[in-house]
Amino acid sequence: MAASTIAAERPGSTSGAAPLAGLRVLDLTQFLSGPYATQILGDLGAEVIKIEPHGGDSSRTIPPHFVGQDSAYYLSVNRNKKSVAVDMKHAAGKDVVRELALRSDVLIENFRPGVAAKLGLDYAQLVAMHPALIWCSISGFGQDGPYRELPAYDMIVQALSGGMSLTGETGGLPVRSGVPLGDLAAGMFAVIAIQAALVERTRTNKGKQIDISMLDCQVSMLTYQAAYHLIAGVVPGTQGRAHDSFATYRTFVAGDGVNVVVCANTDRMWEDMAAELGVAPLLDDARFKTNGDRHANRDVLIPALDRAFLAHPAAHWVERFRARGIPVGRVNTLDKALADPQVAHRQMVLPLDDGRGHRIAVAGNPIRFADQPRALDAYPPTLGEHSAAVLAEVLQWDAQRIAQLVAAGVLKTASGALAQASA
Protein backbone atom coordinates (compact mmCIF):
# COMPACT_ATOMS: atom_id res chain seq x y z
CA MET A 1 0.00 0.00 0.00
CA ALA A 2 1.28 3.47 -0.86
CA ALA A 3 0.57 5.09 2.47
CA SER A 4 -0.18 8.77 2.97
CA THR A 5 3.01 10.71 3.61
CA ILE A 6 1.24 13.44 5.58
CA ALA A 7 -0.68 12.57 8.75
CA ALA A 8 -2.48 15.75 7.85
CA GLU A 9 -4.73 17.76 9.99
CA ARG A 10 -7.77 19.03 8.22
CA PRO A 11 -6.78 22.19 6.34
CA GLY A 12 -7.28 24.99 8.83
CA SER A 13 -7.91 22.61 11.72
CA THR A 14 -6.44 23.04 15.16
CA SER A 15 -6.59 19.31 15.85
CA GLY A 16 -5.51 16.19 13.99
CA ALA A 17 -8.13 14.08 15.75
CA ALA A 18 -10.81 14.34 13.06
CA PRO A 19 -12.14 10.89 12.02
CA LEU A 20 -10.46 10.88 8.60
CA ALA A 21 -7.21 12.61 9.62
CA GLY A 22 -4.30 11.05 7.76
CA LEU A 23 -6.43 10.03 4.77
CA ARG A 24 -5.41 11.57 1.46
CA VAL A 25 -8.00 12.06 -1.28
CA LEU A 26 -7.04 13.01 -4.82
CA ASP A 27 -10.01 14.94 -6.18
CA LEU A 28 -10.39 15.17 -9.95
CA THR A 29 -14.01 16.28 -9.86
CA GLN A 30 -15.77 19.45 -10.97
CA PHE A 31 -19.15 21.13 -10.65
CA LEU A 32 -21.22 19.57 -7.85
CA SER A 33 -21.59 15.81 -7.32
CA GLY A 34 -17.89 15.10 -6.85
CA PRO A 35 -16.96 18.34 -5.07
CA TYR A 36 -19.85 17.80 -2.65
CA ALA A 37 -18.51 14.31 -1.86
CA THR A 38 -14.94 15.50 -1.36
CA GLN A 39 -16.07 18.44 0.76
CA ILE A 40 -17.75 15.97 3.12
CA LEU A 41 -14.51 13.97 3.27
CA GLY A 42 -12.56 17.16 3.93
CA ASP A 43 -14.99 18.20 6.64
CA LEU A 44 -14.31 14.85 8.31
CA GLY A 45 -10.57 15.49 8.33
CA ALA A 46 -9.26 14.02 5.08
CA GLU A 47 -6.57 15.88 3.18
CA VAL A 48 -8.28 16.67 -0.12
CA ILE A 49 -6.05 17.63 -3.04
CA LYS A 50 -8.20 19.21 -5.72
CA ILE A 51 -6.73 18.83 -9.21
CA GLU A 52 -7.85 21.58 -11.58
CA PRO A 53 -7.03 22.56 -15.15
CA HIS A 54 -5.36 25.93 -15.65
CA GLY A 55 -8.77 27.49 -16.23
CA GLY A 56 -10.00 26.09 -12.94
CA ASP A 57 -13.00 24.02 -11.95
CA SER A 58 -15.73 25.19 -14.33
CA SER A 59 -18.00 25.92 -11.37
CA ARG A 60 -15.73 28.83 -10.39
CA THR A 61 -17.36 30.91 -13.15
CA ILE A 62 -21.04 29.99 -12.70
CA PRO A 63 -23.13 33.19 -12.39
CA PRO A 64 -24.71 35.22 -10.93
CA HIS A 65 -22.95 35.70 -7.57
CA PHE A 66 -19.20 36.06 -7.01
CA VAL A 67 -16.74 36.78 -4.22
CA GLY A 68 -13.52 37.92 -5.79
CA GLN A 69 -12.85 35.63 -8.76
CA ASP A 70 -14.90 32.70 -7.50
CA SER A 71 -18.61 32.03 -7.78
CA ALA A 72 -20.86 31.46 -4.79
CA TYR A 73 -21.66 28.09 -6.41
CA TYR A 74 -18.00 27.04 -6.23
CA LEU A 75 -17.56 28.43 -2.73
CA SER A 76 -20.50 26.37 -1.44
CA VAL A 77 -18.86 22.96 -2.01
CA ASN A 78 -15.09 23.40 -1.92
CA ARG A 79 -13.99 24.22 1.62
CA ASN A 80 -11.27 22.16 3.33
CA LYS A 81 -9.38 21.42 0.12
CA LYS A 82 -6.02 22.20 -1.46
CA SER A 83 -5.93 23.34 -5.10
CA VAL A 84 -3.29 22.09 -7.53
CA ALA A 85 -3.62 23.54 -11.03
CA VAL A 86 -2.00 21.26 -13.60
CA ASP A 87 -2.32 20.73 -17.35
CA MET A 88 -3.21 17.05 -17.67
CA LYS A 89 -2.98 17.23 -21.45
CA HIS A 90 0.77 17.70 -21.06
CA ALA A 91 2.85 14.55 -20.50
CA ALA A 92 4.53 16.08 -17.47
CA GLY A 93 1.12 17.05 -16.10
CA LYS A 94 -0.04 13.46 -16.41
CA ASP A 95 3.05 12.41 -14.48
CA VAL A 96 2.29 14.87 -11.68
CA VAL A 97 -1.23 13.56 -11.20
CA ARG A 98 -0.14 9.93 -11.49
CA GLU A 99 2.52 10.43 -8.82
CA LEU A 100 -0.02 12.06 -6.52
CA ALA A 101 -2.42 9.17 -7.12
CA LEU A 102 0.25 6.68 -6.07
CA ARG A 103 0.56 8.53 -2.77
CA SER A 104 -3.16 8.84 -2.11
CA ASP A 105 -5.67 6.61 -0.38
CA VAL A 106 -8.63 7.58 -2.54
CA LEU A 107 -8.98 8.91 -6.07
CA ILE A 108 -12.37 10.31 -7.04
CA GLU A 109 -13.35 11.53 -10.50
CA ASN A 110 -16.55 12.47 -12.30
CA PHE A 111 -15.48 12.25 -15.92
CA ARG A 112 -17.55 10.43 -18.48
CA PRO A 113 -16.46 6.78 -18.79
CA GLY A 114 -13.14 6.47 -20.60
CA VAL A 115 -12.03 10.09 -20.19
CA ALA A 116 -9.73 9.42 -17.22
CA ALA A 117 -7.78 6.86 -19.24
CA LYS A 118 -7.37 9.38 -22.07
CA LEU A 119 -5.87 11.77 -19.53
CA GLY A 120 -3.29 9.17 -18.54
CA LEU A 121 -5.05 7.74 -15.49
CA ASP A 122 -5.72 4.07 -16.07
CA TYR A 123 -7.20 2.17 -13.14
CA ALA A 124 -5.57 -1.15 -14.00
CA GLN A 125 -2.11 0.40 -14.28
CA LEU A 126 -2.45 2.42 -11.08
CA VAL A 127 -3.82 -0.42 -8.99
CA ALA A 128 -1.01 -2.70 -10.19
CA MET A 129 1.44 -0.25 -8.59
CA HIS A 130 -0.82 0.75 -5.68
CA PRO A 131 -3.17 -2.14 -4.79
CA ALA A 132 -4.65 -0.27 -1.82
CA LEU A 133 -5.95 2.62 -3.92
CA ILE A 134 -9.70 3.22 -3.74
CA TRP A 135 -10.94 4.63 -7.05
CA CYS A 136 -14.40 6.17 -7.11
CA SER A 137 -16.07 7.19 -10.37
CA ILE A 138 -19.21 9.32 -10.44
CA SER A 139 -20.99 9.63 -13.76
CA GLY A 140 -24.46 10.23 -15.08
CA PHE A 141 -25.23 6.62 -15.95
CA GLY A 142 -22.38 4.49 -14.65
CA GLN A 143 -19.50 2.70 -16.36
CA ASP A 144 -21.72 0.33 -18.35
CA GLY A 145 -25.10 0.18 -20.01
CA PRO A 146 -26.64 1.77 -23.11
CA TYR A 147 -26.41 5.32 -21.71
CA ARG A 148 -22.84 5.09 -20.35
CA GLU A 149 -21.35 7.59 -22.81
CA LEU A 150 -24.18 10.12 -22.70
CA PRO A 151 -23.67 13.43 -20.91
CA ALA A 152 -25.88 14.06 -17.90
CA TYR A 153 -26.64 16.77 -15.41
CA ASP A 154 -28.78 16.87 -12.30
CA MET A 155 -32.02 17.74 -14.07
CA ILE A 156 -31.55 14.95 -16.64
CA VAL A 157 -31.39 12.24 -13.98
CA GLN A 158 -34.23 13.82 -12.00
CA ALA A 159 -36.28 13.55 -15.19
CA LEU A 160 -35.21 10.06 -16.28
CA SER A 161 -35.62 8.59 -12.80
CA GLY A 162 -39.28 9.56 -12.60
CA GLY A 163 -38.60 11.83 -9.64
CA MET A 164 -39.68 14.93 -11.53
CA SER A 165 -42.98 13.28 -12.44
CA LEU A 166 -43.80 13.19 -8.72
CA THR A 167 -42.98 16.85 -8.07
CA GLY A 168 -45.36 19.70 -8.82
CA GLU A 169 -48.98 20.68 -8.35
CA THR A 170 -51.44 17.82 -8.57
CA GLY A 171 -52.29 17.28 -12.21
CA GLY A 172 -49.77 19.93 -13.26
CA LEU A 173 -46.45 19.90 -15.06
CA PRO A 174 -43.47 18.05 -13.54
CA VAL A 175 -41.09 20.32 -11.63
CA ARG A 176 -37.38 20.09 -10.89
CA SER A 177 -36.46 19.96 -7.22
CA GLY A 178 -35.25 23.33 -5.97
CA VAL A 179 -32.01 21.74 -4.77
CA PRO A 180 -29.98 19.50 -7.13
CA LEU A 181 -30.87 16.12 -5.66
CA GLY A 182 -29.33 14.28 -8.62
CA ASP A 183 -25.91 15.70 -7.83
CA LEU A 184 -26.15 15.71 -4.06
CA ALA A 185 -27.39 12.13 -3.74
CA ALA A 186 -24.57 10.88 -5.97
CA GLY A 187 -22.06 12.72 -3.80
CA MET A 188 -23.45 11.23 -0.60
CA PHE A 189 -23.60 7.69 -2.00
CA ALA A 190 -19.99 8.13 -3.15
CA VAL A 191 -18.94 9.02 0.41
CA ILE A 192 -20.80 6.00 1.79
CA ALA A 193 -19.13 3.71 -0.74
CA ILE A 194 -15.68 5.14 -0.01
CA GLN A 195 -16.14 4.60 3.74
CA ALA A 196 -17.22 1.00 3.10
CA ALA A 197 -14.15 0.44 0.91
CA LEU A 198 -11.90 1.90 3.60
CA VAL A 199 -13.32 -0.48 6.19
CA GLU A 200 -12.83 -3.47 3.90
CA ARG A 201 -9.28 -2.31 3.18
CA THR A 202 -8.43 -2.70 6.87
CA ARG A 203 -9.11 -6.44 6.42
CA THR A 204 -7.67 -7.02 2.94
CA ASN A 205 -5.09 -4.25 2.37
CA LYS A 206 -6.68 -3.88 -1.05
CA GLY A 207 -8.65 -1.02 -2.52
CA LYS A 208 -11.84 -1.04 -4.53
CA GLN A 209 -13.09 0.34 -7.82
CA ILE A 210 -16.39 2.14 -7.12
CA ASP A 211 -18.95 2.97 -9.80
CA ILE A 212 -21.58 5.57 -8.81
CA SER A 213 -24.33 6.39 -11.30
CA MET A 214 -26.37 9.54 -10.70
CA LEU A 215 -29.39 7.85 -12.27
CA ASP A 216 -28.99 4.78 -10.05
CA CYS A 217 -28.94 7.03 -6.99
CA GLN A 218 -32.17 8.74 -8.01
CA VAL A 219 -33.91 5.43 -8.70
CA SER A 220 -32.80 4.15 -5.30
CA MET A 221 -34.30 7.23 -3.63
CA LEU A 222 -37.72 6.54 -5.15
CA THR A 223 -38.20 4.03 -2.27
CA TYR A 224 -41.91 3.59 -1.55
CA GLN A 225 -42.99 5.40 -4.71
CA ALA A 226 -41.18 2.75 -6.75
CA ALA A 227 -42.76 0.05 -4.59
CA TYR A 228 -46.23 1.46 -5.25
CA HIS A 229 -45.66 0.75 -8.93
CA LEU A 230 -43.66 -2.48 -8.65
CA ILE A 231 -46.00 -4.03 -6.10
CA ALA A 232 -49.36 -2.39 -6.70
CA GLY A 233 -49.00 -1.55 -10.38
CA VAL A 234 -49.94 2.12 -9.96
CA VAL A 235 -48.13 5.03 -11.60
CA PRO A 236 -48.02 7.88 -9.06
CA GLY A 237 -48.28 11.39 -10.45
CA THR A 238 -47.41 14.84 -9.17
CA GLN A 239 -47.91 14.97 -5.42
CA GLY A 240 -48.84 18.64 -5.03
CA ARG A 241 -48.82 19.91 -1.46
CA ALA A 242 -49.98 16.69 0.16
CA HIS A 243 -48.80 13.22 1.12
CA ASP A 244 -50.33 10.48 -0.97
CA SER A 245 -51.13 8.28 2.05
CA PHE A 246 -52.32 10.74 4.72
CA ALA A 247 -55.00 13.37 4.11
CA THR A 248 -53.87 15.62 6.96
CA TYR A 249 -50.16 15.54 6.07
CA ARG A 250 -49.91 18.60 3.84
CA THR A 251 -49.55 22.37 3.60
CA PHE A 252 -52.29 24.80 4.49
CA VAL A 253 -52.47 28.57 3.98
CA ALA A 254 -52.93 30.51 7.23
CA GLY A 255 -54.83 33.75 7.62
CA ASP A 256 -51.72 35.87 7.00
CA GLY A 257 -50.96 34.07 3.75
CA VAL A 258 -48.08 32.04 5.19
CA ASN A 259 -47.95 28.35 4.30
CA VAL A 260 -47.93 25.92 7.20
CA VAL A 261 -47.10 22.21 7.05
CA VAL A 262 -49.10 19.94 9.36
CA CYS A 263 -48.34 16.23 9.71
CA ALA A 264 -51.31 14.87 11.64
CA ASN A 265 -50.88 11.27 10.59
CA THR A 266 -52.49 9.47 13.55
CA ASP A 267 -56.09 9.39 14.74
CA ARG A 268 -55.13 11.13 17.97
CA MET A 269 -53.41 13.95 16.09
CA TRP A 270 -56.41 14.28 13.78
CA GLU A 271 -58.72 14.64 16.76
CA ASP A 272 -56.51 17.33 18.32
CA MET A 273 -56.16 19.11 14.98
CA ALA A 274 -59.92 19.19 14.48
CA ALA A 275 -60.42 20.54 17.99
CA GLU A 276 -57.89 23.35 17.50
CA LEU A 277 -59.36 24.30 14.12
CA GLY A 278 -62.86 24.45 15.53
CA VAL A 279 -64.17 21.71 13.25
CA ALA A 280 -64.84 19.10 15.95
CA PRO A 281 -68.18 18.11 14.33
CA LEU A 282 -66.13 16.47 11.56
CA LEU A 283 -64.99 13.89 14.12
CA ASP A 284 -68.51 12.47 14.17
CA ASP A 285 -68.66 12.19 10.39
CA ALA A 286 -68.18 8.56 9.32
CA ARG A 287 -66.40 9.74 6.17
CA PHE A 288 -63.47 10.94 8.30
CA LYS A 289 -63.32 8.29 11.03
CA THR A 290 -60.03 6.61 10.10
CA ASN A 291 -57.02 7.70 8.11
CA GLY A 292 -58.23 5.52 5.25
CA ASP A 293 -61.62 7.23 5.39
CA ARG A 294 -60.07 10.68 5.49
CA HIS A 295 -57.81 9.84 2.59
CA ALA A 296 -60.66 8.43 0.51
CA ASN A 297 -62.78 11.52 1.19
CA ARG A 298 -60.05 14.14 1.14
CA ASP A 299 -61.75 16.10 -1.66
CA VAL A 300 -64.50 16.89 0.86
CA LEU A 301 -62.32 17.19 3.97
CA ILE A 302 -59.54 19.46 2.75
CA PRO A 303 -61.71 22.42 1.63
CA ALA A 304 -63.26 22.48 5.10
CA LEU A 305 -59.82 22.52 6.72
CA ASP A 306 -58.56 25.15 4.28
CA ARG A 307 -61.36 27.48 5.37
CA ALA A 308 -60.63 26.89 9.05
CA PHE A 309 -56.93 27.73 8.69
CA LEU A 310 -57.80 31.21 7.40
CA ALA A 311 -59.11 32.20 10.83
CA HIS A 312 -55.65 32.85 12.33
CA PRO A 313 -52.08 33.65 11.25
CA ALA A 314 -49.42 30.99 10.89
CA ALA A 315 -47.77 31.77 14.24
CA HIS A 316 -51.03 30.99 16.03
CA TRP A 317 -51.38 27.56 14.43
CA VAL A 318 -47.72 26.70 14.99
CA GLU A 319 -47.99 27.56 18.69
CA ARG A 320 -51.28 25.77 19.23
CA PHE A 321 -50.40 22.60 17.32
CA ARG A 322 -47.00 22.31 19.00
CA ALA A 323 -48.71 22.59 22.37
CA ARG A 324 -50.74 19.50 21.43
CA GLY A 325 -47.73 17.57 20.10
CA ILE A 326 -48.81 17.80 16.47
CA PRO A 327 -45.81 18.11 14.09
CA VAL A 328 -46.10 21.54 12.46
CA GLY A 329 -43.89 24.14 10.84
CA ARG A 330 -44.15 27.18 8.66
CA VAL A 331 -42.79 26.96 5.12
CA ASN A 332 -39.74 29.16 5.48
CA THR A 333 -38.19 31.17 2.73
CA LEU A 334 -34.44 30.62 2.55
CA ASP A 335 -33.58 33.77 4.49
CA LYS A 336 -35.82 32.74 7.37
CA ALA A 337 -34.57 29.14 7.30
CA LEU A 338 -30.93 30.21 7.59
CA ALA A 339 -31.82 32.57 10.45
CA ASP A 340 -33.94 30.00 12.28
CA PRO A 341 -32.94 29.66 15.97
CA GLN A 342 -32.59 25.88 15.70
CA VAL A 343 -30.33 26.23 12.66
CA ALA A 344 -28.29 28.84 14.52
CA HIS A 345 -28.01 26.65 17.62
CA ARG A 346 -26.72 23.75 15.52
CA GLN A 347 -24.19 26.08 13.84
CA MET A 348 -25.36 25.10 10.39
CA VAL A 349 -24.40 28.47 8.91
CA LEU A 350 -20.63 28.26 8.66
CA PRO A 351 -18.50 31.44 8.53
CA LEU A 352 -15.32 31.24 6.47
CA ASP A 353 -12.47 33.75 6.21
CA ASP A 354 -9.65 33.51 3.67
CA GLY A 355 -7.43 35.89 5.64
CA ARG A 356 -7.21 38.19 2.63
CA GLY A 357 -10.37 40.20 3.15
CA HIS A 358 -12.97 37.73 1.92
CA ARG A 359 -15.48 36.63 4.54
CA ILE A 360 -18.41 34.45 3.56
CA ALA A 361 -20.94 32.11 5.11
CA VAL A 362 -22.06 28.77 3.66
CA ALA A 363 -24.25 25.86 4.70
CA GLY A 364 -22.33 23.64 7.10
CA ASN A 365 -21.89 19.91 7.61
CA PRO A 366 -24.66 18.22 9.65
CA ILE A 367 -22.48 15.44 11.10
CA ARG A 368 -21.84 15.81 14.83
CA PHE A 369 -19.63 13.63 17.04
CA ALA A 370 -20.55 13.89 20.71
CA ASP A 371 -16.97 13.69 21.98
CA GLN A 372 -15.35 15.97 19.43
CA PRO A 373 -15.57 19.77 19.19
CA ARG A 374 -15.96 21.41 15.82
CA ALA A 375 -12.62 22.10 14.16
CA LEU A 376 -11.85 25.21 12.16
CA ASP A 377 -12.69 25.07 8.47
CA ALA A 378 -10.54 26.26 5.58
CA TYR A 379 -11.86 28.75 3.04
CA PRO A 380 -12.21 27.25 -0.47
CA PRO A 381 -8.85 27.51 -2.22
CA THR A 382 -7.98 29.93 -4.96
CA LEU A 383 -6.87 28.34 -8.21
CA GLY A 384 -3.44 26.78 -7.79
CA GLU A 385 -3.11 28.06 -4.23
CA HIS A 386 -1.37 24.88 -3.07
CA SER A 387 0.27 23.69 -6.30
CA ALA A 388 3.84 24.24 -5.18
CA ALA A 389 3.30 23.26 -1.55
CA VAL A 390 1.61 19.95 -2.40
CA LEU A 391 4.35 18.90 -4.82
CA ALA A 392 6.98 19.82 -2.26
CA GLU A 393 5.28 18.10 0.68
CA VAL A 394 3.68 15.08 -0.95
CA LEU A 395 6.12 14.31 -3.77
CA GLN A 396 9.20 15.76 -2.04
CA TRP A 397 10.10 17.67 -5.19
CA ASP A 398 12.52 20.55 -4.80
CA ALA A 399 11.82 24.18 -5.67
CA GLN A 400 13.86 24.03 -8.88
CA ARG A 401 11.89 21.11 -10.28
CA ILE A 402 8.61 22.78 -9.38
CA ALA A 403 9.73 26.07 -10.93
CA GLN A 404 10.59 24.24 -14.16
CA LEU A 405 7.05 22.85 -14.32
CA VAL A 406 5.65 26.34 -13.84
CA ALA A 407 7.94 27.76 -16.53
CA ALA A 408 6.92 24.97 -18.93
CA GLY A 409 3.23 25.79 -18.45
CA VAL A 410 2.51 22.45 -16.77
CA LEU A 411 1.84 23.78 -13.30
CA LYS A 412 0.01 26.95 -12.36
CA THR A 413 0.41 28.57 -8.96
CA ALA A 414 -1.46 31.32 -7.20
CA SER A 415 0.38 34.62 -6.95
CA GLY A 416 3.28 34.27 -4.53
CA ALA A 417 2.65 30.59 -3.83
CA LEU A 418 5.86 29.38 -5.47
CA ALA A 419 7.98 31.75 -3.43
CA GLN A 420 6.24 30.73 -0.21
CA ALA A 421 6.76 27.04 -0.96
CA SER A 422 10.45 27.65 -1.69
CA ALA A 423 11.03 29.59 1.52
Q: What is shown here, in short?
A:
With 423 residues, the protein is of the alpha/beta class.
Largest β-sheet summary:
7 strands, mixed
Annotation, overall tally of beta strands: 14
Oligomer: single chain
* CATH class (first level) name of the largest domain: Alpha Beta
CATH architecture of the largest domain: 3-Layer(aba) Sandwich
> Would you give the CATH topology of the largest domain?
Rossmann fold
Protein traits:
single chain, alpha/beta, Rossmann fold, formyl-coa transferase, domain 3, 3-stranded antiparallel β-sheet, 18 helices, disordered N terminus
Task: Write up this protein.
- There is one protein chain.
- With 423 residues, the chain is an alpha/beta fold.
- It folds into two domains: 271 residues, Rossmann fold (3-Layer(aba) Sandwich); 90 residues, 2-Layer Sandwich (formyl-coa transferase, domain 3), CATH 3.30.1540.10.
- Helices cover 37% and strands 14% of the residues.
- It has 18 helices and 14 strands.
- The strands form four sheets. The chain has a seven-stranded mixed sheet, sandwiched between helices. Strands 9-10-11 form a three-stranded antiparallel sheet, with helices on one face. Strands 3-4 form a two-stranded antiparallel ribbon.
- Strand 9 and strand 10 form a beta hairpin.
- The protein is elongated.
- The two termini are 32 Å apart.
- 36% of the residues are buried.
- The N terminus is likely disordered.
Write the layout of secondary structure elements.
Elements: E1 24-28, H1 33-43, E2 47-52, E3 66-67, E4 70-71, H2 72-75, E5 82-86, H3 91-101, E6 106-109, H4 115-118, H5 123-129, E7 134-139, H6 154-160, H7 181-204, E8 209-213, H8 214-220, H9 223-232, E9 249-253, E10 259-263, H10 267-277, H11 291-296, H12 298-309, H13 314-323, E11 328-330, H14 334-338, H15 341-345, E12 349-353, E13 359-363, H16 387-394, H17 399-407, E14 411-412, H18 417-422
Parallel strand pairs: 1-2, 1-6, 2-5, 6-7, 7-8
Antiparallel strand pairs: 3-4, 5-14, 9-10, 10-11, 12-13
